[in-house]
Amino acid sequence: MDWIKITVYTTTDGIEPVSGRFMQLGITGLEIEDENEFNEFLDETRDYWDYVDDELVEKMHGDTRVIAYVSDDASGRELLSAIRGSMAELSAIDEEDLFGRLEIEIEGTKTEDWANEWKKYFHTMEIGDRLLVKPEWEEISDETNRIVFNINPGMSFGTGSHETTRLCLEALEKYVTPGCKMLDLGCGSGILSVVSLLLGADEAVAVDIDPNCVDTAYENADMNKVSRDKYHVISGNVVSDPDVREYISRSKYDVVAANIVADVIIGLAPSAREYMKDGGVFITSGIIDGRQDDVKAALEESGFSIESMDRRKDWWSIVCR
User: In a designed cystine with 187, which of 5, 206, 251, 300 is the match (CB 3.0 to 4.6 A)?
Assistant: First the structure.
């Protein structure tokens, strides 16, 4: 299997939060390159060496790096998108600028080549009983009775390739009914909210902390002929931004979906309940194996009753009411 090297540029203070973000996404094999620790090591061991390679010193100068590897396939590309969104979120809450620039470098792949790289791995997929997810560059050769969702992944998470998105889409098939209102927390590409509208929802609101997701979600909505009268995408922090909370609170929702990570879902649980109609359904996913009981407990503590818990590979989805 081929691998993609991902480097996040941060600071010594940023090592722990950046590493934690990777681990929330199920990526545990990390490399840390920290100039401060390197210089401390040189000072502490100065009696044991006579020469240090200049290239090594130059490599360690100026930045702290957290390095990870993901598989070079559709699932790995999804993780890359999730990492971008997670670093954007971390940057947004770093008010004291402790964690540095949090820029991402992908070895061998320029940002402008992202779409072409996607084309190697991302193909039309049947999901659940009624959905067909199709990249915009592919054609359907045979007639289908499935609801077709066309997508250009852009730089945002959510194509249906990753287990967490599939779990959400399968749940939406079950719970989205004609005329309902839907809220998509952490919308990424907009796949969950746009698909909800294609399934018959009357209105959908989508929120993501990464401002780049707004354009991507609207572009995917336009590609599927979803009217912007029914679809509203905003950027901001649903927990701490009063303007975002006020905007969302204009309606009560029948279905709320959050395909994020365990800790964020735990933090969202009380807020999500405030936005929902009585009997509304909260679909959560992105929960790495081992954290499902923590999320279940937080949901129950916030007043939800668990409808179902489903697992695919190392990921869980919890649906509650």
Answer: 206
Cα separation values, 102 from 26, 29, 172, 303, Å: 19, 19, 34, 36
| DSSP sequence for 149-195 | EEE--TTSS-SS-SHHHHHHHHHHHHH--TT-EEEEES-TTSHHHHH
List the one residue out of 118, 111, 114, 148 whose CA is nearest residue 131: 148
**Does the pTM of the predicted model rise above 0.85?**
no
User: Of all residues in the chain, what percent are helix, strand and coil, respectively (each to 5)?
Assistant: 40, 25, 35
Structure tokens at 179: 């005329």
Instruction: Specify burial of residue 188 (Cβ count, 10 A radius: 0-12, 13-18, 19+).
Output: buried
Measured at the alpha carbon of residue 150, what is the angle toward residues 237 and 172, in degrees to the nearest 5? Answer: 60
The residue type at 82: A
Q: Mind listing the pLDDT tens digit for each residue in 264-281?
A: 899 999 989 999 999 999
As a whole number of Å, the end-to-end CA separation of the chain is 41
Question: Environment class of residue 73 by beta-carbon count within 10 Å: exposed (0-12), middle (13-18) or buried (19+)?
Answer: middle
* Positive or negative torsion for Cα 231, 236, 237, 239: negative
In Å, the largest CA–CA distance within the chain is: 75
